[in-house]
Amino acid sequence: MSITRSLILARRVILQMLADRRTLALIVVVPMILLSFLGVLIRADPAERVVGVVNQDNGVSLGGTTVNLGERLIAVLQGFEEFSTRPMNPAEARRELDAGDADAVITLGPDFTQQVLQTRTLTLAVEFEGSNPMIAEQLRKMLERVALQAANVSLALLAAPASGEAGELRAVLDASYLHSGPEYDTLDYMAPALVSFFVFLFVFLLTCLAFLRERLAGTLERLQATPIRSYEIIIGYMLGFLVFGIVQGAVTLLFTIYVLDIHYAGNLLNIVAVELLLVVLSVNLGIFLSTFAQNEFQVLQFIPLVVVSQGLLGGVVWQVEDMPAALQPFSRLMPLTYATRALRDVMIKGEGLSNVAGSLLVLLAFAVLVIALSSRVTARAQGS
Amino acid sequence: MNESPYAVEVVDVHKCFGPIQALRGVTLRVRRGEIYGLLGPNGAGKSTLIRLLAGLYRPDAGSVTVLGRPMPNKEVLAQLGYMTQATALYSELTVWQNVSFFAGLMGCRDERSIAAAIEFVSLTERAHSRVNTLSGGMRQRVSLAIAVAHRPALILLDEPTVGVDPQLRAQFWEHFRTITGQGVTLIVSSHVMDEAERCDRLGFLRNGQLIAEGTAESLRQAAGTTNLEEAFLRLAERQEEVHAL
pTM here? Predict the structure, then answer.
């Protein structure tokens, strides 16, 4: 063994790295960028949850005073700082819930106090928005505590004037869900995002590598010496990778649905349609970015930059709405944000394509942009 | 189509890549059915000239006309056979798949033509081998098969016989003669002088300029030597003297 020989080799490795300025910058800069994203995300206070209350309680007259348990309940709710309580009228509540602005709505009927007295049970009728099962679950636990506290307050209130009989007051949460349901868990929420993330990751990397090889091996030059036009090359690549993107998407989807047993509400065809758009985008992003790589190693560098950043900011784990305001603009620049949102709306809310048209249009705009960029890239040899 | 007697007309073409002047006013004409050899050292501009003919570059100045059409022109490309470096193949595909892919893009979907092209480069037995199992010389031959499979009217060969053994090289030239007899035009870049001898006409390229043109015999006479290599060197010297004046 000769340490000299190893040192000579080590010196060569260092020289090679020093010659590749971009890799050097990447090694130092990218971890800092990603860590600061992650730091901000983890420390961030989630957006405030909104609980609407529709109080129609008329109260009950007990020994000359009117007891209105609905108002008491609102007071209890307002004691919780984890969410903000907003009194609403029924129409307003419906609207806020449908728009996803309210996370849950509690409805107290005109005979709420009456019912509590008669049944000795405080029944809290809550409708959860439900598109994020994690939030719904969190709120449900808090509202159970609310119901319990409210029951205690009510008992004290009702016991005194009434014939002294203390007894008990049960608290029940009557939960209903606009989207999803109590059986939905975190995995159900994550699955649509993970499906889109994997499709994006693999299709992007494969196209990027395939196109890089086409360029490095010189077959791209040979292609350009045939009558094929640059847009025909792009379409060909898209069609070819579409096959694998769809197969991969379908397998991932079926696996999550049938093996991991996730719940989904949407139409399977709508899910496939969103995926198609994502594959088109990924293929073209791959072609476009491949021109910025001189070798396979540099393609690997796109993983932290393009893939991890989208994983962090694209709403896969952290909801975009929950991110600090400073990060949200970054999220809006990431195509994966829109794919995740569309796929989630389709899978959890069971929305039709027309209802996710906004997200799809943005995704389409991204796709058109990268198609334009990537066809410039393939056409460049002819132009110069 | 314009029935000019020339398959290729290059008139006063300039091409720069950044600060590097690859071609500085090259003019040459190649008749239909001719075998034209481009000779010159590395960096003389041979590949640039061939790429201009293949429509890969646009000239900075001057005009390039191929088969009667100004280049770059996508339609003409179907009648062109372009042979580049041996690495420009899909290595995970078989010989047959490579040849039929490019032939297909050229509008030739006839299996017999593909079989004939593979036969021509003596790879019939390896037709269904993956390219990554072939030797360098064999890959070179696949590259040549791709250039001729669709029966083009003009064939551009960039260093076609590097790594090909002499026997096969002789066979290639026999085939080149047969097809040029049918009106096909061949432009070959090379620095193998033995190959140059077989061309109808030669052009000496140096520093992006065509310094001499003619048959091998006439070039030797002009330089006053019996050897092409020496002829090239002498003509290059003479040009420098002219420039010095």
Answer: 0.75
